[in-house]
Design goal:
The structure is a single chain. This protein has 113 residues and is an all-beta fold. Helices cover 0% and strands 50% of the residues. A hairpin with a 5-residue loop joins strand 4 and strand 5. The termini are far apart.
């Protein structure tokens, strides 16, 4: 059974930092690119970072230089380290096993100005 679960969201002031974690189980983790997505209120769900098993990580332009994604293949886990957070980073952050229908339930990030 495939499961995807995010954690680590919260409320933070502008300029603050948070770390999100996503655990994917029930898959051969190394075979899949993993993705972080976010959905702001009233907006579509957008890609934040795409993390291949082995290769460069792609970031949305809006987070380059502030967010760092990584993966630990020994733990079936990916991370999203977010720094210098801005109010426009507010939204629900989702983890996905890319090219599949498997998504996590999302974790809320709220950045106050």
């Amino acid at each position: 059974q495939v499961q995807v679960e995010e954690s680590g969201g919260g409320v933070v002031q502008s300029g603050g930092s948070l770390r999100l974690t996503c655990l994917a189980s029930g898959i051969r983790f190394r075979l899949f690119t993993m993705g972080w997505y976010r959905q702001a209120p009233g907006k579509p769900r957008d890609l934040v970072a795409s993390i291949p098993y082995n290769g460069p990580i792609d970031y949305a332009d809006s987070v380059k230089g502030r967010f760092t994604a990584s993966r630990d293949n020994t733990k079936n886990t990916i991370y999203l380290d977010m720094h210098n957070l801005k109010p426009e980073d507010t939204g629900v952050y989702f983890c996905r096993i890319d090219d599949t229908t498997f998504w996590g339930q999302g974790t809320q990030v709220a950045v106050s100005s």
